[in-house]
From TrEMBL:
The lineage of its organism: Bacteria, Pseudomonadati, Pseudomonadota, Gammaproteobacteria, Vibrionales. GO terms for biological process: N-acetylneuraminate catabolic process. PANTHER family: N-ACETYLMANNOSAMINE KINASE, ROK (REPRESSOR, ORF, KINASE) FAMILY. It comes from Photobacterium malacitanum. This is N-acetylmannosamine kinase. PROSITE patterns: ROK (PS01125). The keyword ATP-binding does not apply. One of its GO terms (molecular function) is N-acylmannosamine kinase activity. InterPro entries: ATPase_NBD, ROK, ROK_cs. It is an enzyme of class 2 (transferase). The gene is nanK. Keywords: Carbohydrate metabolism, Kinase, Transferase. It holds the Pfam family ROK. Its EC number is 2.7.1.60.
């Protein structure tokens, strides 16, 4: 039996799991909060203590990480999300810790792959986009049934397309990115400004669910922006399906709001909208199955 030590590095948490590559099932799982420090050494130390207990049971390591992964090197496109890591030697560091063959890809690309392989037996999907609305907004594209990782690892970074050219400055250096106006972090920031008190995205969402109309407007603006993005990408790439995930994407009613905004558009702009099936484990399972498959080729 081949066992993968899968690692998912996000802006808020880092998860590790042993995955049985034949069945794609998680054998054991553990997670910690992502260190908020800007120091690469602190991230390395956190990864070492998280991974050590699993090393002896694994044959290889597959990482899904927030940020751009180019040849095993991690760079935060939006440094606000991951302690400003620039050219962090992710694969080398983890290989050093585990002494196992190690591979890495972007977290949303990994999740896209897992959602895709979970769906394809039942659906005729050619061109699919996975969107995660969470700490940031990430994406993964499957075109002609092939996952697009990009020559420089950038493919799918839809969070940094512009929805409002006069909008606020995003951490990536571009003004008005959708991530800055519609992600969980943005929902918290907009709510904090409006209510003049520090709120997380989750707290603003809870207020909306309790019927606070200002909070509900913030959630609606986010869903409307995501619907515009979906329409733009559908007419650009001929998408047939869009899978919505992430903590905001999977929150009550959010996907329904996206669908409502899309329903106002002509049919060509409306792909099939699907809720992500694998929840918080899509990154772990996607990286495990993507690299298990790459190894066998
Ligand atoms: C950001 C970017 C993407 C990532 C997306 C979702 C960084 C550090 N990350 O757009 O690479 O896929 O956030 O990340 O620049 P998550 O942490 O919200 O899952
Ligand atoms: Zn940006």
């Amino acid at each position: 039996m081949s066992v993968c030590l899968a690692v998912d590095i996000g802006g808020t948490k880092i998860a590790a799991a042993l995955v049985d590559c034949e069945t794609n099932h998680i054998i054991e799982r553990c997670q910690i909060a992502t260190p908020q420090s800007q120091q690469p050494a602190i991230l390395s130390a956190a990864l070492a203590s998280l991974l050590r207990p699993f090393i002896n049971q694994a044959n290889f390591v597959a990482i899904a990480s927030t940020g751009i992964i180019d040849n095993g090197i991690l760079t935060a496109l939006n440094p606000d999300n991951l302690g400003g890591l620039n050219k962090f030697e992710l694969v080398d560091q983890i290989q050093h810790i585990t002494q196992l063959p190690t591979y890495a890809m972007n977290d949303a690309q990994a999740a896209a792959w897992y959602e895709y392989i979970s769906l394809t037996p039942n659906n005729n999907i050619n061109n699919m986009l996975f969107i995660t609305v969470s700490t940031g907004i990430g994406g993964g594209l499957v075109l002609n049934q092939q996952l697009q990782t990009g020559a420089r690892g950038i493919s799918g970074h839809i969070g940094h397309t512009v929805v409002n050219a006069n909008g606020p400055m995003c951490g990536c250096g571009r003004q008005g990115c959708i991530e800055k106006v519609a992600s969980g972090t943005a929902i918290g920031e907009i709510g904090s400004l409006l209510f003049d008190c520090l709120y997380s995205g989750q707290e603003v969402y809870q207020l909306a669910l309790k019927g606070n109309s200002d909070a509900l407007n913030i959630i609606h603006s986010s869903a409307a922006a995501v619907a515009e993005l979906i329409a733009n990408l559908t007419i650009t790439l001929d998408l047939d399906s869009v899978v919505i995930g992430g903590s905001v994407g999977l929150a009550p009613n959010y996907c329904h709001y996206i669908q409502q905004y899309l329903n106002e558009k002509p049919a060509l702009y409306r792909p099939h909208i699907i809720l992500a099936q694998s929840g918080a484990d899509a990154g772990l399972l996607g990286a495990a199955s993507w690299f298990a498959q790459q190894q066998s080729h």
